[in-house]
């Protein structure tokens, strides 16, 4: 009789550990919001929950103006429209595809620039060399919610009169020097997708510097309508529904506890994975208040297994770690023909993409599971 390995057993979904699990508040707390929507029969178009949620989010995030969206991708597409970006946009290959896709949807040309080896964010020192007369903007990503070098990016942008739009999809609630990271750039966008530290099922937002910009973006996300008979731009439908906005309002009541639990888990991983040869946890810069949406590690050549072998060991145990971000965006068919997508231009990103593994992190993850994940890495390291 053969010995049954864990991967041979029929495991229920609840026994699997995924890289993330959406935070859901108690269902009974959502019922009054639903009753309110049913009473009022206002489902969308900037209804009362939409307005309350925008206000509450501004207060929570410490920003002055924000426009809610259906999702982060439409927020990105609209942000580029709002600033009338043209020609070439400098961006990172080390991100989720939506970052570069938003450029193609605007008929813009992505120009990929390599990342910094410490942060894996766009390397400002390399941005300048990629600027051409066609460049009109920089689209950096606060990858994993870890802050970009915003001052250096601002300096280059100012020198060359470029706009900066931050893809801050991972950066909900992140603060630097006691202030919101989202205040940087001409615009920043957020995602409230189910996989993010703060979710509204689907959702997103554009952080705006002033009321006038917000008003313009509000028009753009509503087909360009200013009033019943006036359309000022070829806008889109990017409005968040009342259901999502109500859910977001409720989520805000729980988000501090959820972020605190993420912080605890991140601290445990850092401790449990300390001093394993070849394993490097990606540090958040010391002046940042992080949100720990992800827990990325780099599996270096001093580790006893290759990254993909370790990935497979996790799968064998029904632990679904993820290789964010592998492949690089620049390797996908719609990008790989670009000159800037050529491998020797993106060596740092390429190396990171070959080593990265994001470990499970979410509020409901138990200490036992955190220890199990860390033990699997240590037990396979040959360090015992
Ligand atoms: C870096 C980044 N940008 C943009 C997006 C798109 O956001 P959404 O899924 O809300 O459209 C995501 C993820 O979902 C992301 O990770």
Task: Summarize the model shown.
With 384 residues, the protein is α/β, with parallel strands linked by helices. The chain is built from eleven helices and 17 strands.
Fold and architecture overview:
This protein is of the alpha/beta class and 384 residues long. Helices cover 35% and strands 16% of the residues. The chain contains 11 helices and 17 strands. The protein has helices at 27-40, 48-61, 72-82, 98-104, 124-127, 150-160, 211-220, 242-272, 307-316, 347-355, 367-379, and strands at 17-18, 65-69, 88-91, 109-112, 135-139, 163-167, 175-176, 179-180, 187-191, 204-208, 225-227, 230-231, 279-281, 288-289, 295-299, 319-320, 356-359. A hairpin with a 2-residue loop joins strand 11 and strand 12 (230-231). Helix 3 crosses helix 4. The chain is globular and about 70 Å long. The structure holds pyridoxal-5'-phosphate (PLP). Residues 71-73, 95-96, 98-99, 141, 167, 169-170, 191, 193, 204 line the site of pyridoxal-5'-phosphate.
